[in-house]
Amino acid sequence: MKAGQNLAPSVASDAPAAKPQNFFSRLTGVIFSPGETFAEIGRAPRVFVPLLSLVLLGAVAHFVVANRYGYENLIRKETARRCPESELRKLTRSLPP
User: Fold this and answer.
1) Is residue 64 one of the residues assigned to a domain?
2) Is position 16 within any domain?
3) Of the four listed, 18, 35, 65, 82, which is most buried by Cβ atoms within 10 Å?
4) 18 has a pLDDT exceeding 80
5) What is the three-class DSSP state of 6?
């Protein structure tokens, strides 16, 4: 046996590198084949598209809530729920004009 000779089989060099999955393949893969998908995410992590999609989803949810319910209405309902009418009157009387 020669010095520096590797006896381990070279499995990784024989197999071609698998092409990384796109965002939608990973999204469906998390549900249907999570083991393979998370292993692939570990080999080639990419965060830009998932982060961008979360930001867009949050912006759409914000837009829908703001236009459907309105902030003033949401604040009024939450104030009425947390603070009884009698306490609210006391607070408004103590405010300077």
Assistant:
1) yes
2) no
3) 65
4) no
5) coil
